[in-house]
Specification:
Blueprint (H helix, E strand, L loop, with lengths): L2 H65 L2 H6 L3 H26 L3
């Protein structure tokens, strides 16, 4: 077998190996892209669900608070949570008042 024939076979074998590697890498990259896309979509949906639950909770809170419906609050077992929220809101109002007072003072 001539040297050129051996070189040519080696190049063809190398080319075949390279093509196989490229196919393998492309397949893996495709899988990685699909996994990334699926994970991103899952996070997007989780965020959307969280926002909707927060919106729902806020709507229920406002409705119960506006109507001062203790019966419904007790029925759903959220009366203590409503009281906690009211206390936290009162604390925030007090903190805002104190902040304004401090900011008005000359340095």
């Amino acid at each position: 077998m001539k040297l050129w024939d051996r070189i040519q076979r080696g190049m063809e074998a190398g080319f075949d190996s390279t093509i196989a590697a490229v196919h393998s890498i492309t397949e893996k990259a495709g899988e990685g892209i699909e996994l990334t896309r699926l994970r991103r979509e899952k996070v997007r949906l989780e965020t959307q669900v969280t926002r909707r639950l927060a919106e729902l909770g806020n709507t229920v809170f406002e409705k119960i608070s506006a109507e001062q419906d203790d019966e419904i609050a007790e029925k759903f077992g959220i009366k203590n949570i409503l009281l906690d929220v009211a206390q936290d809101e009162a604390k925030m109002v007090e903190i805002d008042r104190r902040l304004k007072s401090v900011l008005k003072k000359p340095a």
